[in-house]
Predict the structure.
Amino acid sequence: MATASAAKNFPFTLEQIKAEKAERRLRDFVKQAWSIIEPDVPFVDNWHIGAMCEHLEALIRLEIKNLLITISPGSSKSTVTSVCLPAWVWIQNPSFDWLCASYGQRIATRDSVRCRQIIESPWYQNNWGNRFQLTSDQNEKTKFLNSRGGQRLALGIMSGTGERADCVLIDDPHEIEDRWRPSKVKRTIDSYDQTFSQRGNNPKQFRKLIIMQRIGNDLAQHVLEQGNYEHLMISQEYEPARSKVTSIGWRDPRKKAGELLCLKRFGPEEVKEAKKILGVGGYRAQHQQDPLSDAEAIFKRIDWRYYMEDPHELAKEMSCVVQSWDMKIKDIKTASKVAGHVWGMKGANKYLLDRTCEHYSFTDSMRAVVRFSDAWPMAIAKLIEGKACGPAILGVLKKDIAGLIEWPPEGQRMDSKTARCSACQPEHEAHNIWLPDPQKYPWVEEFVEYMAAFPNAEYNDDADAMSQALEYLRGKVSSDSVPFGIGGKNLWNIR
């Protein structure tokens, strides 16, 4: 009876206590708001949620002005930052202005809608609805205002804006595919420098927040080089040597090397699958937040040289022109790609004249060989790696395409992929390898990025095609070994 009496006289209900906790701490707010935006997905709490929330709270208190969070995909980073944080801040400061950007308008709009969903929910309105109301005349998917002057604007990172804010929040500024698009990465960085970094209402109280997974020479690298960002780095697998104490005294709580971020969300099997799909380089960037630097690359981006001439016109000056093909193992999209190159030699220099690198089927691979043979008749030798489906393609086409060579030649041992490419490195460092103008041929950028990530790239097929072409051009095989075939044109509708 005494317990019942005490409960009866207690001035606060359980719901009021929970609301008070949610108002005071972002982590509690996220826990309670989760079911509103993810009704079918149970909330999985973990120490990394607390780590993000602690640093975000410090950002709002201006204990940190510029915050970079790099963390693995699937760690609820967007839900915590882009969705919950603005709604939570408006409880204490409804006049706070947000400028929220992502790599695409669709993603930015998605999180804007989810944030508004929380604010309009009965849970939020019952507890804090008396503090402000969303305005009826400016309540859109991408922009909404409240009655106390606060606003949340969502836009793509490439969008220009004249709007200002108390905090710029950039969530995933790059698509994963941007790792192969250095020009797009540069445009993103330029947009940050020229637009978003300058959009503060009050310079002394202007906060900048970037949260992302790494892809390479990206926006995170850019702001870290500037040196004015606090960096919260949380890797998938714990690496003690990379663990650092942040300015608010936080340290990764894990003790053992290799300990995973959150076993309930991403266990050993998921890690194994991620490494298989992404490759070592992709995994280290996206999950370990440790992209391979250009200094570690066999083929450094800075050492490539570019020619401005038309490749077909340039080929007329070549002493030798050769096709080189690396065929895929399986006829599925998750397997390797088919890489086909045309290389020419002029003096000491080697020139990449044409290239394809796609998920070709067996038939499409044959069509590609025929297409390149028609486009480059001066490429007498056509090297096809004698693995995967290469021998089958040789068997089908050898009576109709002149100069097909199974590589390596009979009796010659094939070195490892890394050894073959290492043999090309001196020519690359000496600036003897030339590529077409990337402005005219956009595929050049992809080629450079694949080569920069070798041997840990998602696809290493370009490396195989290049190395065997350069080996041939270096004269390791005499020209009289090149077969000439009959060069027929009736290729049973392959063209």
User: Anything to note?
Assistant: DSSP finds 17 helices and 15 strands in the chain. Confidence is low (pLDDT under 50) at residues 476-495. The first helix runs from residue 2 to 9. The first strand starts at residue 66 and ends at 71.
